[in-house]
Design brief:
With 466 residues, the protein is α+β, with helices and mostly antiparallel strands. The protein contains twelve helices and twelve strands. The strands form three sheets. It has a six-stranded antiparallel sheet with strand order 7-12-8-11-9-10, with no helix packed on it. Strands 1-2-3 form a three-stranded antiparallel sheet. Helix 4 (82-98) runs antiparallel to helix 5 (101-115) and helix 7 packs across helix 8 (212-229). The longest helix is centred in the middle third of the chain and has 22 residues, at 163-184.
Length: 466
């Protein structure tokens, strides 16, 4: 299939398998997962449909956005600061497609519910927002909130007819951006970690947790701020972050988003699309290179596994919206940038299967090959892997990972305990090299924290690519 055909297929897959109508998107293709119109799973699908409209002005997508506007969530804060910000971005996407004032009103209401609250931008490193009201949940502050807040504020400032509100929104965007740079930016790299913990009178980074979602949002926010203020440093910082994303790739140059279900990649793809449309050749090459790999992580139903350079979802897996959105977004982008190109064969169908039992850390797994994929379960309630922490999901349980003796730049490792949609099997980690050789994966224990819990790993089998 050409990228043009894969892009069409991605849109059809969203509409037929993931969109439930009435602005709601399914958590997985099965009816048991339910469907929602709020938070980042639904928001990731709105991003992809917006991306398709941005690149092609697909009239079918515009018709869907008419439904999205009519069914957008109208509630605001429910104890979380990030949820209304994801919803506000989705509402602005809908406004930009439909120019329906209802969508802009929804975005304004969601945004102002946070800005006017006295329960989130408090404590140390204020004005950074707590994720949970009054710092519950161990004092966690997540960039999911404030990366979206910056983007919403600057976009609202460009769309409102009220000059006083526009100035206030732009000032908030600039102040929040400065606070994010001061608190979430890595000390050595132009990438943003996702979590801070407020401890006593200061905030401490959970270092090098480089989510695709928040880095993508910060890239887009920087570009938007540059356009709104005519200050080039915002665009320069956005491009620096985009170029540093190449450090989160395997030896074949393919981006690797770690863990299980606590990140979405569509915002990063959309940020790269924005850069590519502005003439950034590196962003265009990133999209096509990753799409070449991800085309072969596609299941027969058109959904994608999380790891772009990994195999398709294993037989019997329940693929979640949090895993599949990145591959779908890549195909839509590549369909516009390289419509007639065809992905080459990848070879995962010839990988050998090895039964393994990796259930503790520290531990080591050695093999010879050019690729590795580790498969294990994602826990549901009642599973021994399900450890409920701050918000009631299965969250606790992860390990750090070293490849051939080297720590990964992204220190998330494998966060198997975070399961928003349970599955009997999923690809927990995948990595490839240009040529075959002996390799070693080392799984290291982790210190306990209030968001990720402690050490937990359960790998059942591996695919080894020769």
């Amino acid at each position: 299939m050409t990228f043009s055909a894969l892009a069409d297929d991605a849109v059809a897959t969203i509409m037929q398998r993931w969109y439930a109508g009435g602005s709601r998107f399914r958590g997985c293709p099965s009816p048991r997962c339910g469907a929602v119109n709020s938070d980042w799973g639904a928001g990731s699908m709105v991003d992809i449909l917006y991306e398709r409209w941005l690149l092609t002005h697909d009239v079918r997508v515009a018709a869907t956005f008419a439904q999205i506007v009519a069914g957008e969530p109208r509630s605001t804060l429910h104890g979380f600061s990030d949820v209304p910000m994801w919803d506000a971005v989705a509402a602005i996407r809908a406004y930009d497609v439909m120019h329906d004032r209802r969508a802009l009103g929804n975005a304004e209401r969601q945004y102002r519910s946070l800005v006017s609250s006295t329960h989130f931008a408090t404590g140390p490193c204020s004005p950074i927002d707590y994720q949970l009201r009054d710092g519950r949940g161990g004092g966690l502050k997540t960039l999911e909130t404030d990366a979206n807040r910056i983007l919403v504020a600057v976009l609202l400032s460009q769309r409102t007819a009220d000059p006083v509100a526009a100035r206030a929104d732009l000032a908030d965007a600039r102040a929040t951006y400065a606070a994010v740079r001061a608190n979430f930016l890595d000390a050595q790299l132009p990438l943003y970690t996702v979590y801070l913990f407020a401890r006593g009178r200061r905030c401490a980074q959970l270092r090098r947790q480089f989510f695709a979602s928040v880095n993508g949002r910060m890239i887009e926010a920087g570009l938007a701020l540059a356009a709104a203020t005519h200050r080039q440093h915002y665009a320069n910082e956005a491009r620096a972050t985009a170029h540093a994303v190449s450090l989160l790739a395997n030896e074949r140059g393919v981006f690797t988003d770690l863990q299980a279900q606590n990140d979405i990649v569509a915002p990063l793809v959309l940020a790269m699309v924005e850069l590519a449309r502005g003439g950034d050749a590196n962003a265009s090459a990133w999209i096509v290179r990753n799409a070449m790999a991800a085309a072969h992580a596609r299941s027969p139903d058109g959904s994608y596994a999380r790891f772009f350079d990994g195999p398709p979802p294993p037989r019997g897996a329940t693929v979640s919206v949090y895993e599949t959105n990145g591959g779908l977004a890549l195909m839509v982008a590549a369909g516009a940038l390289g419509p007639n190109r065809r992905p080459a064969l990848t070879g995962w169908e010839h990988a050998s299967v090895r039964a393994v039992s990796i259930a503790t850390a520290p531990s080591v797994f050695r093999f010879t090959g050019s690729g590795i994929a580790l498969v294990g379960p994602l826990p549901g309630r009642g599973s021994p892997l399900c450890h409920r922490l701050t918000v009631g999901d299965c969250e606790g349980g992860h390990v750090h990972l070293r490849i051939d003796g080297h720590a990964m730049i992204d220190e998330i490792g494998i966060w198997q305990g975070k399961a928003l949609v349970a599955s009997p099997a999923t690809v927990l980690f995948a990595w490839r090299w240009p040529v075959s050789g002996p390799h070693e994966l080392a799984f290291d224990p982790v210190p306990v924290n209030a968001k990720q819990g402690g050490t937990e790993i359960a790998v059942a089998w591996a695919l080894v690519l020769r």
